Amino acid sequence: MLESYIFLQDCITRAKNRVLNLYNISGKRVGLQNSLEFHQIRLASYTMTAPSSSWKPIFWIIDVAIAVYTIGFLFFRIGELVPLLSIYPTQSRAAFLGTCVLHTSSPVSRASKRLFCVSSILILIYVMDSYAPTPVPSVSYVKAAEGPKTIVITGANSGVGFETSRQLAVTYGLDVIMACRSKAKCAKASDTINAEIASSKSPSGGTATPHTLDLANFDSVASFANQITEMKPPIDVLFNNAGFVPDPKLPVNEYGLDPGFTPMHLSHFLLAELLLKSNPSMRVVNTSSGTHHFCAIPYAFVPKPLLKFFTYQQNPGCVDEDFLQNGIRSETDNAAYIQSKVANVMHASEIPRAHEQSTAVAIDLGWVGTSIQSFMTGSLTPASVGWMRSASVGVLPVLHAILTKKEDLMNSLGRKGGWAEGGIIVNVYGRVEEPFSASHWTSKGISGYDVGKERMKYLGGLLWRTSREIFEERGLL
């Protein structure tokens, strides 16, 4: 309390002395050439510095905390900030200009600048999580459109898979087939959802049914697909959601294949092909990631001699001829995750070309707080402090991809050729995009490597043929 009083007294004294310096003893103004100069000096008189050295450590800690939080925020949310700039270009420029003016303006106190930084981040979190996302389809919209009724979701016992299952069954009244590696965890998750449906004042009529599926085992995938087919419900949507971040140098699996690429792409490819046989108009939704852009960004903006400092040792486009010939049959490397994520986009892009009645969407969730990595779990997580999206926010693009009518998806894209030109992407804000259409997917990058849209389309076709050959050799397709 005493320190606060001393601080206040010191501030008043400083302000008083600055104002008195503007006048001589007789009350005449000294050294002021015009009123503008007078007001500038008077405004400067209110700009005060820390009055006591005892406050400096506290202010230093506050500055460090703000800096650390800002760095973490930018690191985890850069994938959401980039599309936000394209959605609100004018507002973004105005905000940037205002920030520059404020931080270079001397009359503004450091305390005000700190408050501005904290307020700006809180506003950004609100914009990215609540304002910018497109509203999800309503229950009445889905019913009027005679939307999907039966959904298969892999990795459904936790994170985005669980939250998607819960919202589809509880809110929209759909029948969800939950496919999980752990039978016990899957049963517990489905029981939780069914209990919520039963306790609702107006039950939606949805259901959640647990099934076991091990995506690391091709026989398990084939057995699961056979079980679902024998149940005879028409499958409207397959949501290929399960994924993880593989450690580098994991040895090849029993099939002699990359143990990260196998469950995240190959098994999902097999599952989709098997279910499409009896459900030709099924929609396939793949969980991709904004990290798939790292397969292009370094090659677009970094000179060739410097690439080794800006990549995860991935090839241009990640899934290229060399990877499909050698990498797919090798241990995991540092780029294992983004290789699988770009493959998810390629797969979705190719499905409507190979199955003309079907539709396919790859989704970018942003960085969502799930259990996909160990640092995302516990009581204090990146999601709990606003560095990542929560699962409830992360599912918004998923719900768009699953529930929006195919005509509405295509209309919002404005593509004349329709689904015959391939699948699409739904970004973090629920907006539709062309795959590989961003400026960094270019054949004219600084590095000289071709990662343009036509090149990626060719590689997508090559990935499709390679994936089919792997399963045809084993008699699974």
Please write out the topology.
Elements: H1 2-20, H2 35-44, H3 56-87, H4 89-104, H5 110-131, H6 139-144, E1 150-154, H7 159-171, E2 175-180, H8 183-199, E3 207-212, H9 218-230, E4 237-240, H10 261-278, E5 283-288, H11 297-301, H12 321-325, H13 336-354, E6 359-364, H14 391-394, H15 396-403, H16 406-413, E7 424-426, E8 432-433, H17 453-473
Question: Explain this structure to me?
Answer:
It is a single chain. With 477 residues, the protein is an alpha/beta fold. 49% of the residues lie in helices and 8% in strands. The chain contains 17 helices and eight strands. The protein has helices at residues 2-20, 35-44, 56-87, 89-104, 110-131, 139-144, 159-171, 183-199, 218-230, 261-278, 297-301, 321-325, 336-354, 391-394, 396-403, 406-413, 453-473, and strands spanning 150-154, 175-180, 207-212, 237-240, 283-288, 359-364, 424-426, 432-433. Strands 3-2-1-4-5-6-7-8 form an eight-stranded mixed beta sheet, sandwiched between helices. Helix 7 links the parallel strand 1 (150-154) and strand 2. The longest helix has 32 residues, at 56-87. The model is unreliable at 1-9 and 22-51 (pLDDT under 50).
Keywords:
477 residues; alpha/beta; 49% helix
Compact summary:
The protein is α/β, with parallel strands linked by helices and 477 residues long. It is built from 17 helices and 8 strands. The termini are far apart.
Shape: globular
Rg over C-alpha atoms, rounded to the nearest angstrom: 28 Å
Poorly predicted sequence stretches spanning 5 or more consecutive residues: 1-9, 22-51
Rounded average pLDDT: 84
Give the neighbour order of strands across the main sheet.
Answer: 3-2-1-4-5-6-7-8
Secondary-structure element sequence? HHHHHHEHEHEHEHEHHHEHHHEEH
How much of the sequence is in beta strands?
Answer: 5-15%
Quaternary assembly: single chain
